[in-house]
TrEMBL record:
InterPro entries: F-box-like_dom_sf (IPR036047), F-box_dom (IPR001810). Keywords: Membrane, Transmembrane, Transmembrane helix. This is F-box domain-containing protein. Signal peptide: none annotated. Residues 5-53 form the F-box domain.
Length: 349
């Protein structure tokens, strides 16, 4: 041990600091605290440490509360009973799994320095616990929040507690309807990137008496979008009406409407709506999942995909970079059709 310690002491401070930041805070202090004055000074200089609390740590507290201000990232795994207000200086919070009732008492949590929040669900969680997630976010409990990712299965509805969240730049949420969409844009005027799933209840086009003109949103990703022969594109017109400066649009449609092949061959692939609302659009991605089943096996052959390709190409006519992704479920590979001279592309979840 003495030999290993002497070798470590030969390393410059810069390498030791970079190495220490890969270690969980408790392991780090247990291993290196009080070795000598140099190591103590190095430990006290660190300000981007991380702490992982899991179900094993339910009744465990930090050995040294003086290290709390040095914790930059807190990761809480599964149903750990942790009082988040004890970690008021953290900047990143990752919650993996949620308790079934009053998850971490989020309605009373105030984290004034939090910049990054991610909630990941593994296994089952109660509807109650998920529905409470958005309340502290949009009631300014995290005034410095820049990135927020909520579970896909979460459903958000605007409430009277919502206030302005000026710091938020990137937001990923679950199912929302049109008025919650407008509520989010109103509450987050500086939002740049927005991912959401369309509400499962079928929404038809409506005339908005009031709508927001959100000038800062540049990237919009809509998943589980229903597009069919009866309701056509639903309320997509209203979505795009609110974001005139959009530069990137990605639509992920559902699959249950795929039986009506004729409609797809006559579909304008949203070209008309885009031309009306999005004069600054640079990239458009359309994700089309197709399942091979006994019922539609004969309908979707290579000629069919070629016709869809040509229709998509004709409709968008190289006005911007456009990509049609045909996700062939139970087929051999993912087919992507791109129509633009440029090689640039964007990652899309």
């Amino acid at each position: 041990m003495n030999d290993n310690q002497s070798r470590l002491e030969l390393l410059p401070n810069e390498i030791l600091i970079e190495t220490f930041e890969y270690l969980e805070v408790r392991d780090l202090f247990r291993a290196f605290n009080n070795i000598n004055s140099r190591f103590n000074e190095l430990l006290q200089s660190l300000n981007e440490l991380f702490l992982i609390l899991s179900i094993r740590d339910r009744d465990e507290t930090l050995d040294d509360v003086n290290t709390l201000p040095q914790i930059h990232t807190l990761i809480v795994k599964y149903k750990t009973d942790v009082i988040l207000n004890h970690y008021s200086t953290i900047r990143r919070l990752i919650l993996i799994g949620l308790p079934y009732a009053r998850p971490y008492k989020l309605e009373s949590v105030v984290l004034p320095h939090l910049e990054y929040l991610s909630v990941i669900l593994k296994g089952s969680s109660s509807v109650f616990s998920i529905s409470r997630l958005h309340e502290p976010i949009f009631s300014n409990s995290f005034p410095c929040l820049k990135f927020c990712s909520l579970p896909r299965i979460s459903t958000i509805q605007k409430t009277e507690r919502w206030t302005k969240l000026l710091s938020l730049r990137i937001l990923k949420v679950g199912h929302i309807g049109l008025f919650t969409y407008i509520g989010i844009l109103t509450a987050c005027p500086n939002l740049n990137i927005f991912y959401f799933l369309e509400e499962k209840i079928l929404q038809t086009s409506t005339v908005l008496t009031q709508y927001i003109n959100h000038e800062n949103l540049k990237r919009l990703v809509i998943k589980e979008k229903y597009i069919g022969p009866v309701t056509h594109v639903g309320i997509l017109n209203e979505y795009l009406l609110c974001v005139p400066n959009l530069e990137y649009l990605s639509i992920h449609v559902t699959t249950y409407h795929m039986r009506n092949l004729q409609y797809l061959l006559e579909f304008d692939w949203l070209a008309s709506i885009i031309s009306v609302h999005l004069s600054l659009l640079c990239q458009f991605h359309f994700h089309l999942p197709v399942f091979r089943t006994k019922r539609n096996n004969k309908r979707f052959d290579e000629n069919t995909f070629n016709q869809l390709e040509e229709r998509f190409k004709t409709m968008h006519n190289k006005q911007y970079q456009s990509k049609l992704f045909i996700d062939r479920k139970n087929f051999q590979h993912l087919q992507c059709y791109e129509y633009e001279s440029t090689d640039s592309s964007s990652d899309d979840e």
